[in-house]
C-alpha cells in the first residue's frame, strides 16, 4: 500500500472540503473494499478522508419508508427492528460477521461491485439515494462496472427505501467470497412489481421480462418458460454464463416463494 | 507520521504511525503483540480478528488511525491471572486447534458470536465463523469448542 494522508471528517461538509483541498483524495467508510484495493495498489490516493465521524450513521422509519444513513454498518441494518425483513436479510447475507461489523451501505453502493448485494435491494425496492448534492433514483444510480451516477467528490448521505407489500431476496453465494454468484430481489413495490438481478452482468439491473411475468401472475411458476440468453452474462472459473443464466431464474423463483 | 492513541487490553497506548499503517501492524510491530496473526492480504482469512469497542473486526482491514480513541482487545488480553478465558479453555479441551495459526482470530470471533448469540446452534456457529479460515482442523472441533464455551464451559 502506498502511503497517504489520513483525515477524519466531522461532517459531510467537512469531508467535502477536505476532499476538495486534496490533490487526489477519496472518502472511506468501512474500508472493507477500499483497504483491500489500496493493498493491491489498484488505487493510490494522496488523501483518505474517513466518514466514520461525519454523523451519517443511523436508521429512521417513518411508517412509509425507511432511511438508512450512509455509514450504517451491515450488522446494524441486519439487527434493526426498523428495517423490513427483506432488507435485513440482504444485510445479514453480506460477507462475514467481521465485514458486516465495518462495511457500510454507502460504501457498498458507491463501489457498485458487479456481485454486491445492496444494489439489487435498491433497484428492487425503488430506493432513492440522497447525496450532498441531490437525490438520485436507484434506477439512475447504477451505471456499469464499478460505475455509478456519483460525480467526483459527491458523497452519499443516506438511502431511502419505500415500503413494499411483499419483498424478498434470494442469493446464491460464492462459497469462498460470499459475494453473489447471482442474487435476485423481487418486490411488489409501490409502483408495481420490481425484479432486480445482481452478479449476472457488469452491474445490478432490473429484469423487465421477469417483472412482466410476475405482474401477470405473482408465483414462481409464472417464470417457468422464461430463458435468459447467456450472451453478455458474466463467466468465470466459478460459473459459466449459461450457469448464471439458469441461476437467475432459480433465484427469482426462490425469492418469489420466500416473499409469499 | 501521526500519533495514534487507544486502549489495548486495558492499557493506554500511543505511537507514531503512517496513514497507511494497519491496526494489525501497530499491534504487532509497535506493541509487540504478535498473537494477532496475518494470514492473507485479501481480508478473507480472519487470523487478524480483534475486538474494537466490543465488536470483532479484521485488524488487517482497518487503519491504525481509525482506531484512535478505541478500546481494543487482542488474544493477549483474554487470560486473567494465568487462567485461560473459557473460550480458550474450550478450544484446548476439544482439540479445536492443530497448528494454531488461525486460533487467535478464531477465538476472538467466537467470543463475539457467543456474546451476540448466547445459545447458538451448530448452524449459527458455522455461519458466524464464515470469516475465519482454518487449514488444519476441518472446523468440527472448533464448533464443539464454541458450543462448550457457550454452555458455560
Ligand atoms: C471478505 C469480504 C467479503 C465480502 N462479501 C460481500 C458480499 O457478499 N456482498 C457484498 O455486497 N459485499 C461484500 N463485501 C464488500 C463489503 O460489503 C463492503 O463493506 C462494501 O462493498 C464497501 O463498504 P465500505 O463501507 O467498507 O466502503 P469503503 O471500502 O470504505 O469504500 C468503498 C468505495 O466507496 C466509496 N465510498 C464509501 N462511502 C461513500 C459515501 N458515503 N459516498 C461516496 N462514496 C463512498 C469509497 O471512496 C470507495 O471508493 C465483502 C468484503 C470483504 C472484505
Ligand atoms: S489477515 Fe486475513 S483477514 Fe486479516
Ligand atoms: S489450526 Fe492450523 S489453521 Fe487452524
Label the overall shape of chain A: globular
Poorly predicted ranges of chain B (pLDDT <50, ≥5 residues)? none
Rg measurement of chain A, Å = 18 Å
Find the count of extended strands of chain A (DSSP E, 2+ residues). 14
**Count of extended strands of chain B:** 5
Overview in brief:
Chain A is of the alpha+beta class.
Q: Describe it for me?
A:
The complex is a heterodimer of chains A (260) and B (153). Chain A is an alpha+beta fold and 260 residues long. Chain A is built from ten helices and 14 strands. Chain A folds into three domains: 5-50, Uridine Diphospho-n-acetylenolpyruvylglucosamine Reductase, domain 2, CATH 3.30.43.10; 59-162, Uridine Diphospho-n-acetylenolpyruvylglucosamine Reductase, domain 3 (2-Layer Sandwich); 166-259, Enolase-like, domain 1. In chain A, strands 4-5-10-6-7 form a five-stranded antiparallel sheet. Chain A has a four-stranded antiparallel sheet with strand order 11-12-13-14, with helices on both faces. Chain A is globular and about 55 Å long. Chain B folds into two domains: 2-77, Beta-grasp domain (Ubiquitin-like (UB roll), Roll); 86-150, DNA polymerase, domain 1 (Orthogonal Bundle). Chain B contains five helices and five strands. Chain B has helices spanning 23-30, 86-93, 103-116, 122-128, 140-150; strands spanning 2-8, 11-17, 49-52, 55-58, 71-73. A five-stranded mixed sheet of chain B has the order 2-1-5-3-4, sandwiched between helices. Chain B is globular and about 45 Å long. The chains are: A alpha+beta (260), B alpha+beta (153). At the A-B interface, strand 1, helix 2 and helix 5 of A face strand 4 and helix 3 of B. The site of one FE2/S2 (inorganic) cluster has 11 residues of chain B, from loops.
Amino acid at each position: 500500500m502506498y502511503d497517504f494522508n489520513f483525515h477524519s471528517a466531522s461532517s459531510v461538509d467537512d469531508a467535502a472540503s477536505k476532499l476538495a483541498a486534496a490533490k487526489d483524495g477519496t472518502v472511506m467508510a468501512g474500508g472493507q473494499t477500499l483497504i483491500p484495493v489500496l493493498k493491491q495498489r489498484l488505487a493510490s490516493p494522496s488523501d483518505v478522508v474517513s466518514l466514520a465521524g461525519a454523523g451519517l450513521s443511523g436508521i429512521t422509519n417513518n411508517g412509509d419508508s425507511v432511511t438508512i444513513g450512509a455509514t450504517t454498518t451491515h450488522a446494524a441494518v441486519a439487527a434493526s427492528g426498523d428495517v423490513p425483513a427483506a432488507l435485513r436479510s440482504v444485510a445479514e447475507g453480506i460477507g462475514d460477521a467481521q465485514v458486516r461489523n465495518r462495511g457500510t451501505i454507502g460504501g457498498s453502493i458507491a463501489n457498485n461491485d458487479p456481485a454486491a448485494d445492496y444494489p439489487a435491494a435498491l433497484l428492487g425496492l425503488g430506493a432513492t439515494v440522497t447525496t450532498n448534492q441531490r437525490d438520485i433514483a436507484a434506477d439512475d444510480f447504477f451505471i456499469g462496472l464499478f460505475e455509478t451516477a456519483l460525480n467526483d467528490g459527491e458523497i452519499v448521505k443516506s438511502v431511502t427505501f419505500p415500503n413494499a407489500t411483499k419483498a424478498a431476496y434470494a442469493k446464491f453465494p460464492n462459497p469462498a467470497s460470499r459475494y453473489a454468484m447471482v442474487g435476485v430481489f423481487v418486490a411488489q413495490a409501490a409502483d408495481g412489481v420490481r425484479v432486480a438481478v445482481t452478479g449476472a452482468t457488469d452491474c445490478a439491473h432490473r429484469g423487465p421480462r421477469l417483472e412482466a411475468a410476475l405482474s401477470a401472475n405473482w408465483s414462481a411458476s409464472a417464470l417457468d418458460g422464461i430463458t435468459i440468453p447467456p450472451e453478455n452474462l458474466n463467466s468465470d472459473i466459478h460459473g459459466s454464463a449459461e450457469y448464471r443464466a439458469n441461476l437467475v431464474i432459480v433465484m427469482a423463483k426462490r425469492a418469489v416463494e420466500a416473499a409469499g | 507520521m501521526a500519533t495514534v492513541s487507544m486502549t489495548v487490553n486495558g492499557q493506554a497506548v500511543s505511537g507514531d504511525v503512517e496513514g497507511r499503517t494497519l491496526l494489525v501492524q501497530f499491534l504487532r510491530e509497535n506493541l509487540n503483540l504478535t498473537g494477532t496473526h496475518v494470514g492473507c492480504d485479501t481480508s478473507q482469512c480472519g487470523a487478524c480478528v480483534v475486538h474494537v469497542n466490543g465488536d470483532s473486526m479484521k485488524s488487517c482491514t482497518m487503519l491504525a488511525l481509525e482506531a484512535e480513541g478505541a478500546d481494543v482487545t487482542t488474544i493477549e488480553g483474554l487470560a486473567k491471572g494465568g487462567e485461560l478465558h473459557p473460550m480458550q479453555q474450550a478450544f484446548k479441551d476439544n482439540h479445536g486447534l492443530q497448528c494454531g495459526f488461525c486460533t487467535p482470530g478464531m477465538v476472538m470471533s467466537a467470543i463475539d458470536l457467543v456474546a451476540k448469540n448466547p445459545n447458538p446452534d451448530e448452524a449459527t456457529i458455522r455461519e458466524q465463523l464464515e470469516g475465519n479460515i482454518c487449514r488444519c482442523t476441518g472446523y468440527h472441533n472448533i464448533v464443539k469448542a464454541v458450543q462448550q464455551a457457550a454452555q458455560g464451559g
